[in-house]
Amino acid sequence: MLRSIPLGIYNPGSSFLHRLQARTKLLVIITLVVVLVIANRREWHFAPYLVAFTLIVIALLLSGAGFRNLWRRIWLLLGITFTSALFSIFAAEQGSRILLQFGPLMPTYGQIYRLALIVSGCCLIVQVISRLSVARLQFLGRKMTFKILRVITLLLLLVALLVLWLGTGTPEQQTLIVGPLQVTQRGVWVFVTVFSMFVTLYLSSLLLTLTTMPVALIEGLTLLLKPLRRLKLPVDDFALMTLLGFRFIPTLIEEAGQLMKAQMARGGDVLHGTLTERLQSLVMFFQPLLQGSLRRASELATALEARGYQSDGQRTLLHETHLGRIDYLVLLIVFVSMTASLIF
Are strands 98-102 and 181-184 parallel, antiparallel or unpaired? Predict the structure, then answer.
């Protein structure tokens, strides 16, 4: 799980994307954001999203990062985002055309009781079987799919028991009206746009951090924000804080891994035991992790003061140079293709 954290991890290489200036990549992402925000106002106009996704796929091929490596980093977050955005399909909006309609369902409370009993019984059987001391079942219990099944059945069991408890005392012949659930045209468009925008922007930011050193990224961000200095805004302080944040992500991940191994060596395990034991293990894990983070921040602040760091003044850039022909060509291709997708 710790190795799958994507943002802030730089993958050294000499690919086409590695050779581009950080300002070029940042300007490309800004262009994608602006165009996709404008495209949201035109319903059922998928050209900007298709062009943006095509550009992301081409960038992935030119980055040298494999599809398997990228999928390992994004599958969990994509699944959570897809599940969350799926509920927007049923968002009812007055005047929007109805595509599908489910219900209304009118079951009796007796039918609901029987269904809740069947579901709770099946879920209880799964929970009991998963905890039997059988070698074959223990092997399955270590697989991620079986762990997810256990969590789903536990949630279903809690929901079924809640339904049985709330319906106590209600006549079995009484009817409960459920629905109707309507899939509207506006709801489908909102789901497609939200999920497509998230995937596009998340993949572009992931490729940015994978192919750009943190120092070069902050230098490019500082150059893009340079006009804000005339407004007396602390651009250099903001760049320093961002650089330190990116720099310490791998350090915190490594420290978290060491804490997990140390606790496992002492008999602590977050993934097993009762709910109370797991919560205690989590507290014992996050407490030293937070203490270590604060200690590192204090030591870094002391080191900056000892070296006489000051945010004012012009600094020499190490990585960012003048934009080359390749940078201008990439910016031109992205700008023209995204602008044309809005028009046609």
Answer: antiparallel
